[in-house]
Design a protein that fits this description.
Elements (H helix, E strand, L loop, with lengths): L2 E5 L2 E4 L4 E8 L7 E7 L6 E7 L5 E3 L7 E6 L4 E6 L8 E8 L8 E2 L3 E6 L1
Parallel strand pairs: 2-11
Antiparallel strand pairs: 1-3, 3-8, 4-5, 4-9, 5-6, 7-8, 9-10, 9-11
Length: 119
């Protein structure tokens, strides 16, 4: 059983930078896909980015492409989301989730970390 724990959220001014971490425990994720999502108050959960841990292949939602970067450190069993040029609209709870492979459902979720961007 995999457990995921996000960290790195906080309060930042518009234009600022944050790096979120998603640490996995309980099982090595080397063959998995890990994704980052967010949910703002009153809005549906939104996919942001994903990475295949074995190959490093990444994908991004268009609205964050060029501002957000997903990466992984397989030795640390950790996936990161670097967020640049943050906007107030980026304010949300950010979650990471894992899937066992391409096309599989994201079935393990972290508890989330709050990101608040002030104007």
């Amino acid at each position: 059983q995999v457990q995921l724990v996000e960290s790195g959220g906080g309060l930042v001014q518009a234009g600022g930078f944050l790096r979120l971490s998603c640490a996995a425990s309980g099982r090595t994720l080397s063959s998995y896909i890990v994704g980052w999502f967010r949910q703002a108050p009153g809005k549906e959960r939104e996919f942001l980015a994903a990475i295949r841990l074995r190959s490093g292949l990444t994908s991004y939602e268009n609205s964050v492409k060029g501002r957000f970067t997903i990466s992984r450190d397989n030795a640390k069993n950790t996936v990161y989301l670097e967020m640049n040029s943050l906007k107030p609209d980026d304010t949300a709870v950010y979650y990471c989730a894992s899937a066992t492979g391409p096309g599989a459902t994201y079935d393990t979720w972290g508890q989330g970390t709050q990101v608040t961007v002030s104007s």
